[in-house]
Structures are given as structure tokens and as C-alpha cells.
Design a protein that fits this description.
This protein is an alpha+beta fold. It has helices spanning 3-6, 57-63, 84-88, 119-124, 151-157, 170-173, 175-182, 207-219, 245-250, 318-321, 338-348, 354-372, 423-428, 432-442; strands spanning 9-10, 16-23, 28-35, 46-47, 112-116, 130-132, 141-143, 162-163, 200-202, 226-230, 240-242, 257-261, 269-271, 275-277, 279-289, 294-298, 302-305, 389-401, 407-418, 450-452. The relative contact order is 0.13.
């Protein structure tokens, strides 16, 4: 706003409204103001700073913090799992399968027919036990990029088909739901969540609890940097790192977000050309069944590195604090293959064998999927005998200390992605999709790069 507009004070009973107006022909922005009460000469012009239909007193107090300081530290920051209706808001008209019936096995007397709308899969699936078909009606396996919703019809009318999605897998792939289901894996009620989950608050539904927890950490002298992300965007869009409470409180105005405790003490990787940088790791996991849970990890993993030496400052420096460098043509992408990385990592950290670190990573994966499948839909991934799926899990390693005072590397799971970009996987491991299809649809894991968790 201009000098006049920025001087208009807040009131819970405002005399005016003010809204921005963009005049497109001239590319000029105005602020339009009009009275909403009868006003006389000398009456003060006021407006409501939080015109979002918010009536809850605690939430209003939280959202007004940038202008009106308040102490919310006496409020409990304990998080309670929301009810069924919260999860149902993500249904997108998904219809659950009928599971009380027999589902025919895939054919063994001929090749399994695959329909896909993903060109990469069509080009690289070379296992002779599969063949492509041009129509979904003829297919035994549907490997789709588009979201599938009608599992009822699939189970009733096409029980012999398999599909690469699970109903209500959004509890894993949408960030606020991921935090909710992950907290089921915590070891005690006194914990904020399992050790592998960064403390996470939903800034739409848990803002007073977040403010309380922030103020508790501030009073305790603890690090208070947070990374705030949209629920369902990728590529670091609208993502912010800050320790400024007023800034965080206003971020939901541009869309719903979660605030995740920023990993301030990450395990770093020494790049000879730069120094110690952040890195993250992407694993592919294969979900074969929900009841019983049958989950595999693909042993080949992918690495992404920051392009500047790490320090806990300059949070607007993307190349220091973020690791994904393949979105812009001018970005410098550091390429290290997993089998090259392991000896390099062990030379930098000789007291931490990679096989032990990987075991802790796989244990975190197992706990996550156990928690996500522990409750029926819509609060968990639904049982669907026809479903198989792969997900990409991005994680970092953080230094932590056990009760005896010994440092160890703690995996921290960042996000789960459905239908991940596998072009890089196929470029360096041409048999990637052969391994995936063999494991998921034939249960043949011999000499495949998979581990049953």
C-alpha cells in the first residue's frame, strides 16, 4: 500500500474495507477503499487486517502478531490428529474398491499386456515377459500418469487388471497429511513425532499451536529456523526459510502451508571445489500390498548437492540451502552416482559405515508406511488388491545425540512423491523399470536391485 493506506489502523469492527485492484490495460495497481459503516466527519478510517472469515479468538490473535504482540506460550502446542472429515476433503471423488471377492492372478501363459500414458515407460520396459498395448481395455496392467479415482468399477468390472496407484495415497504425498500420519509412529506421547520427521505444523489449522511452540523454543534458547512449504506444490515454489515469526504468520495468505523445523545441523558432503555442502538423497520405494504391508526399497539411490558451502545464514541463497539444481538450464548439476558416493562418504565419515546408515533409512521407510496404512481410508492408504505403486522419498541426514552422548546420523524424511520423474534413473540404470515391473507384478526379485523391508 501507499503511505496513506499503510497508516490505516486495524480494528475488529472496521469502518472501511480496502482491497487491491490491478488495472490490466495500464498494468497499474490501486487500492480501493469504501466505507462499510455510516461515518461522520472526524471518524477514524480503520480496516480489518485479517479478512479471512476467521472468528476463533486464538487464531485471530495469532494472525495479528505482526502488528499486535501477544504471548501464546501458555497454550498447549500438542497436536491432535483431526477427524475423518479433514481427510475426506482430499478425496477428489475417489471410490473405494470392493475387496470381499477373488481377484484373478495375472496370466502366466502369455505376455502381460501393459498400457501406459508415459512415453518413458513405453520406451524402456524391455522385459520379454511384458508387451505394450495401445488401449487400456486390452491391458492387464495400467501404468498411468493421470490420477485414477474409480476403484469400485475397477474391482467389480475389471478384477483381473492391475494399476499403479493406491486409493487415498494422498495421505503420503500431500505434506500436511504426511505429517499427520507420520506422527502415529512416535514412540511416546511426549514426543512431537518420530525422530525421522521434522517437527511440522499446519499453518492453516494449527497456527496457535505453532506460535506457542515457537515462543517456547525462543524462551528456551533453541534454534527457531523454519522452512515453510505449500501443501501440494513442488520444485521449491513459494517455499521460505526464516526465523521471523511475523513473516511466518503471514505466509498462509498466499496459500495453505506447513511449517517444518529447518534442519540446522545437517550431515554435509565435502566437495573439493566448494567445501562442505548440503545434500539430499532420493530413494524409490515399491508398495506391493497394504494388507499385509509389503514394501520394497530400490537399492540404487540418487543424490543432489547444493552448489555453495553451507552455513546457517543467507536463506535467500537458493544454491546454499536447496539441492535441486536441474530445473533451470543455467544451473550447475553435480552428478555423483550412488556406487561412487558410498566410498566417498565413508572416507569422509569413517566411523559411520553406509550399510548402517542405510539400515536406519529403511527402518524409517517401514515405520512411515506402517503408520500410513494403519487406519482405514480416508485416514490411511486403502487396501486395494489390484494396486501396485512406486514412490520417491526425499531425505536428508541430521546429526543427533543419543542418551549416552554419542553422535549418530538421523535420517529426516522430507517428502513423498507419487509418479516420480524416472528419466535420470533410466538413463544410468536402463533396467530400472524392468526391475520395478518384475518385482511388483511377477514377484520376481532375483538379481533385482530391491530389498524387502
Amino acid at each position: 500500500m501507499d503511505e496513506f493506506g499503510s497508516r490505516v489502523q486495524h480494528s475488529d469492527s472496521p469502518t472501511c474495507r480496502m482491497v487491491p485492484f490491478l488495472y490490466i490495460p495500464e498494468q497499474v495497481t490501486f487500492t480501493i477503499m469504501w466505507p462499510i459503516q455510516t461515518m461522520g466527519e472526524g471518524d477514524e478510517v480503520t480496516r480489518n487486517y485479517i479478512e479471512l472469515g476467521i472468528t476463533d479468538p486464538l487464531e485471530r490473535k495469532s494472525r495479528l502478531l505482526p502488528w499486535i504482540p501477544a504471548d501464546l506460550s501458555e497454550i498447549s502446542y500438542k497436536q491432535v490428529e483431526p477427524g475423518k472429515e479433514y481427510f475426506e476433503a482430499y478425496r477428489m471423488n475417489e471410490r473405494l474398491p470392493s475387496v470381499d471377492k477373488e481377484f484373478p492372478e495375472l496370466p502366466t501363459d502369455r505376455k502381460i499386456k501393459v498400457f501406459t500414458d508415459i512415453g518413458l515407460v513405453e520406451n524402456v520396459l524391455t522385459d520379454a515377459r511384458f508387451e505394450m498395448t495401445a488401449t487400456p481395455e486390452d491391458a492387464d496392467v495400467l501404468w498411468l500418469k493421470v490420477t485414477y479415482k474409480d476403484y469400485t468399477t475397477l474391482s467389480k468390472d475389471m478384477p483381473g487388471k492391475r494399476i499403479n496407484q493406491f486409493p487415498f495415497e494422498t495421505v503420503l504425498t500431500v505434506k500436511d497429511l504426511l505429517a499427520i500420519v507420520s506422527r502415529r509412529a512416535k514412540k511416546s506421547e511426549s514426543e512431537m513425532g518420530p525422530k525421522w520427521l521434522p517437527t511440522t505444523f499446519n499453518l492453516k489449522s494449527e497456527l496457535p499451536q505453532f506460535v506457542s511452540y515457537y515462543q517456547y523454543r525462543e524462551a528456551s534458547g533453541l534454534d527457531n529456523h523454519w522452512i515453510c512449504k505449500p501443501w501440494n506444490l513442488a520444485r521449491a515454489l513459494d517455499t521460505h526459510i526464516t526465523n521471523n515469526l511475523s513473516y511466518i504468520v503471514r505466509l498462509p495468505e498466499s496459500g495453505p502451508k506447513v511449517a517444518c523445523k529447518y534442519i540446522e545441523n545437517p550431515v554435509l558432503f565435502r566437495r573439493e571445489d566448494l567445501g562442505d555442502v548440503k545434500f539430499d538423497i532420493r530413494y524409490i520405494v515399491l508398495l506391493s500390498s497394504v494388507q499385509p504391508l509389503k514394501l520394497y526399497a530400490y537399492r540404487v539411490f540418487w543424490l543432489r548437492f547444493a552448489n555453495r558451502e553451507y552455513s546457517l545464514d543467507h536463506f535467500d541463497d537458493y544454491e546454499k540451502h536447496f539441492t535441486v539444481m536441474n530445473y533451470q538450464p543455467e544451473d550447475c548439476l553435480k552428478q555423483v552416482h550412488y556406487d561412487e558416493f558410498i566410498p566417498m562418504f565413508e572416507s569422509q565419515y569413517p566411523d559411520y559405515p553406509w550399510k548402517d546408515v542405510e539400515l536406519s533409512i529403511f527402518q524409517a521407510f517401514k515405520e512411515l508406511f506402517t503408520a500410513a496404512c494403519a487406519k482405514p481410508a480416508p485416514k490411511g492408504v486403502a487396501n486395494s488388491p489390484q494396486s501396485r505403486a512406486i514412490y520417491a522419498i526425499d531425505l536428508m541426514l541430521q546429526w543427533d545425540t543419543d542418551e549416552a552422548g554419542h553422535r549418530y546420523m538421523q535420517p529426516m524424511l522430507l517428502e513423498v512423491n507419487y509418479g516420480p520423474d524416472c528419466e535420470r534413473a533410466c538413463k544410468y540404470h536402463p533396467h530400472f523399470f524392468n526391475d520395478i515391473f518384475s518385482t511388483l507384478f511377477l514377484e520376481d526379485t532375483e538379481n533385482k536391485n530391491v530389498t524387502l523391508l
